[in-house]
Structures are given as C-alpha cells and as structure tokens.
TrEMBL record:
It comes from Azorhizobium caulinodans (strain ATCC 43989 / DSM 5975 / JCM 20966 / LMG 6465 / NBRC 14845 / NCIMB 13405 / ORS 571). Keywords: Iron, Lyase, Metal-binding. The keyword Transit peptide does not apply. It catalyses: an aliphatic primary amide = an aliphatic nitrile + H2O. This is nitrile hydratase. Gene3D superfamilies: Nitrile hydratase alpha /Thiocyanate hydrolase gamma (3.90.330.10).
C-alpha cells in the first residue's frame, strides 16, 4: 500500500531510491533463497510458509480490527492504551499476537491537539502482528533520523500537514516496546459498522505518517 498521499512526493524522490529498487531487491532475495535451498539450510517451502503467515494471519488487518473496536468502544480504547496485550487478547484474533515481533506491544492514541508518530532509530523494530511487514522507507536511516529531529517537516513530506497548535509526539520502538498508533476516528463515520470502519484504517495511519479518512 502506498504511503504517500495525493500531491506528496514519492518515496523515491524523498530518499533518493533507485526507481527499480523493489525489482532489484526482489531479484537479490530470489538469488539468496536459491542459494540457501541449494545448501540445504531451508526448503523451497520455507519462505512461502513465512510469507503466507504474514499475509493471512499476522498483518495490518489485525490492527484495523483493534482500531475499529477502539473507535466504537471507549472503554476498550482505555484498556488498549493502559495494557495493550491484555486488551488485544480480548478480541478474536489469531494465536501468536504476542509473539513473532509482537512482544511488548503498546498503543498510543491520537486526540485533538496530539498526533503520534512511530519510528525506530536503532533498526526497524515494528509490531508485525498488527501492522504487517515494515515498509522499506520505515527502515531507511534518513527517515529514522529525520523523523526524530524534525517530525513535523517529515510528516508534511508525507502529505500530512500537522497544525502548529497540535503537539507531535514521537515514539521510538525497540525490542522491548513496539508502538503503534490508534488514529482518530474520521468525522462523518457515525453510521458505519465496525466492519466498515476497519476498511478506513491503514498501516500508515497506525504508524502516524497519515490519518484515517472517511471513504
């Protein structure tokens, strides 16, 4: 899913990525996979099994369910922020939410006057069970360093102009705490069901480089 909004510069423009970055990286991955299979370290099904796990069981669809529930249930939202793992355990989500990069997850909620942004200055720690695999720009040293120093400017480059009256809080993920954002519920969605609200929740909004918008 693209993280830029309409009118915003592309990630290639922002971070000087080569235009064929994804194809180039995919070719390198295929070559490495073939070498590992040849050496007997993995089988030809190993990578597919992992990818299937993060495509069907662990991913942003879980985060969307969590956020949508927080939008319709204020008491759940309070529990989610106070004790994220316990609140998540209340929902009918796949087993393993607390493992495989989901250890010690913590949620922070946007509110009028406060906007949260998630980064990882050390590496690319990321709550995979609720956000899926991290986008390549999240791991880029330029994003990690600049977002820590000048988050408002970086958000503007993503197409998100945060008013000066709104405080921007930056949360640095690590192996000890993996943060994600509960974005504000979009205006005009009062009549939508919880399932319909899930569609409005994007990984970018749960990182904080975007906001949730009504369809």
């Amino acid at each position: 899913m693209a993280c830029t909004q309409r009118g915003a510069p592309s990630m290639a423009d922002q971070f000087n990525y080569r235009e064929d970055r994804e194809a180039y990286s995919a070719a390198r991955v295929r070559a490495l996979e073939a070498l590992l299979i040849k050496k007997g370290i993995i089988t030809d099904r190993s990578v597919d099994t992992v990818l299937d796990y993060f495509e069907t069981k662990m991913g942003p669809f879980n985060g969307a369910k969590i956020v949508a529930r927080a939008w319709v249930d204020s008491a759940f939202k309070e529990r989610l922020v106070a004790d994220t793992p316990s609140a998540i355990a209340e929902l009918a989500l796949p087993e393993g939410m607390a493992g495989a990069e989901g250890e010690h997850m913590r949620a922070v909620a946007n509110a009028p006057g406060v906007h949260n942004l998630i980064i990882c200055t050390l590496c690319s720690c990321y709550p995979w069970p609720v956000l899926g695999l991290p986008p390549y720009w999240y791991k880029d040293p330029t994003f990690r360093s600049r977002a820590a120093r000048e988050p408002r400017a970086v958000l503007k480059e993503f197409g998100l102009a945060v008013p000066e009256s709104t405080r921007v809080k930056v949360w640095d993920s690590s192996a000890q705490i993996r943060w994600f954002v509960v974005p504000e519920r979009p205006a005009g969605t009062e009549g939508l069901s919880e399932a319909e609200l899930e569609v409005l929740v994007t990984p970018e909004a749960m990182i904080g480089v975007a906001v949730a918008r009504a369809a």
